[in-house]
Design goal:
Radius of gyration: 25 Å
Number of helices: 3
Helix content: 25-40%
Largest sheet: 11 strands, mixed
Order of helices and strands: HHEEEEEEHEEEEE
Structural class: alpha+beta
Length: about 170
């Protein structure tokens, strides 16, 4: 038996192990870089590639995303013209390449527009909204938008709702 042939097999195995270790290290670097990417960036990146649907807490059907803001999404409920605004904390899943037959376009991204700014536009137009909470909700005219809350006028009473408790808002119109 020649020792040269015997050890050449080990050299080949050793080279494979080194290649695998380098590949694992590159993969780990990619994972570490990906772990630093916030949800808004993931959503924005996917919006640039294709139309998206999201599942929103308490909504019964997916939402076709039309706009993405700094901490919110806006879109239509699948199969309807119902306009929905939801904070990111209510988005349960992003769905790419949905099998839905609704007409959709690439969402527009507004990374510096806050949910408050979006809701102030509805307030200026005196729009009626339905604010859905985890349990229950309120329907009335959006009359004030605070830093982290909104006021809805319902007949003679005014209700202040913290944004953190909002699942989504349906904009009904003026």
């Amino acid at each position: 038996m020649r020792w040269d042939n015997f050890f050449s097999g080990f050299q080949s195995l050793w080279d494979s192990e080194i290649d695998n270790a380098e590949l694992d290290e590159r993969r780990e670097l990619i994972r570490a870089e990906r772990a630093r990417i916030p949800f808004i960036r993931v959503l924005a990146n996917r919006c640039e590639q294709s139309p998206l649907d999201v599942l929103v807490s308490s909504a019964l059907v997916p939402v076709h995303v039309g706009r993405v803001g700094a901490s919110w999404i806006e879109g239509n409920l699948c199969g309807t013209a119902t306009l929905l605004i939801a904070p990111f904390h209510s988005v349960n899943a992003i769905i790419e390449h949905s099998s839905c037959r609704c007409s959709r376009t690439l969402p527009r991204i507004f990374p510096h527009v806050t949910m408050g700014a979006r809701l102030r536009a509805s307030e200026r137009e005196s729009q009626t909204v339905t604010v859905t909470l985890v349990r229950g909700g309120f329907r009335g005219q959006l009359v004030a938008v605070w830093r982290d809350a909104v006021d809805v006028q319902i007949n003679e009473r005014r209700v202040s709702i913290p944004v953190r408790s909002i699942e989504f808002i349906v904009v009904d119109g003026p």
